[in-house]
């Protein structure tokens, strides 16, 4: 508890570089996560085509394939693995996988903690911005130090950046808006006065 308070206090007076406005990469591929739902289609084999949830352990079960790891894989990787498994029973299967309910892998989740109205973890979407995230969490509390907020980039080894939430949300300064990345953590400290 004391450590968290120290981190939040340090955030209030940060000397961190400003977060880069652009962060998304063109090569991003969605990773299936626990509690996603996937639709599996096996061409010319409707009895093998199913819609299944990804269990909390990250696995799915289908006809002919009891347990197969789905979490942490792209839909394309899962389709290739299922094709290999079905190939043991049927000749030349063609498999496609579509994600129909998105939760995402935990390593891809954006987490918002501190003085947001509704702190939470939200699934990453390609192209999502800081403004999108703040709308989803309901903005800032009355006690937030919005311009003292820190963005921690998980995909950059925990590198920290300064973000100006108060300028973005209260003053409408769109130049304070930045793109988010999978695994980002946004820390919104409490204002001391």
Can you characterise this structure?
- Residues 1-12 have low confidence and may be disordered.
- The protein folds into two domains: 16-28 and 106-188, Outer membrane lipoprotein wza domain like (Outer membrane lipoprotein wza fold like, Roll); 37-101, wza like fold.
- The protein has four helices and ten strands.
- The chain has helices at residues 2-12, 75-86, 130-136, 165-170; strands at 37-42, 50-53, 59-62, 65-69, 95-101, 110-114, 120-122, 149-153, 159-163, 185-188.
- Strand 3 and strand 4 form a beta hairpin.
- A five-stranded mixed β-sheet has the order 7-6-10-8-9, with helices on one face. It has a three-stranded antiparallel β-sheet with strand order 2-1-5, covered by helices on one side.
- The longest helix has 12 residues, at 75-86.
- The chain has 193 residues and is α+β, with helices and mostly antiparallel strands.
């Amino acid at each position: 508890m004391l450590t968290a308070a120290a981190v939040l206090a340090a955030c209030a007076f940060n000397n961190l570089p400003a977060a880069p406005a652009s962060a998304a990469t063109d090569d991003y591929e969605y990773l299936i996560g626990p509690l996603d739902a996937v639709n599996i289609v096996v061409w010319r084999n409707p009895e093998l085509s199913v819609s299944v949830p990804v269990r909390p352990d990250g696995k799915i079960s289908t006809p002919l394939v009891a347990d197969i790891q789905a979490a942490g894989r792209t839909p394309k990787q899962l389709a290739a693995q299922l094709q290999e498994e079905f190939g043991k029973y049927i000749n030349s299967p063609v498999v496609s996988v579509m994600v129909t309910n998105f939760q995402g892998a935990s390593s891809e989740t954006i987490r918002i903690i501190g003085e947001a109205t509704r702190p939470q973890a939200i699934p990453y979407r390609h192209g999502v911005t800081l403004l999108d995230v703040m709308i989803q969490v309901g903005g800032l509390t009355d006690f937030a130090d919005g311009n003292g907020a820190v963005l921690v980039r998980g995909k950059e080894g925990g590198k920290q950046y300064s973000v100006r939430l108060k300028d973005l949300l209260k003053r409408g300064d769109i130049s304070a808006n930045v793109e988010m990345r999978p695994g980002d953590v946004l820390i919104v400290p409490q204002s001391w006065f």
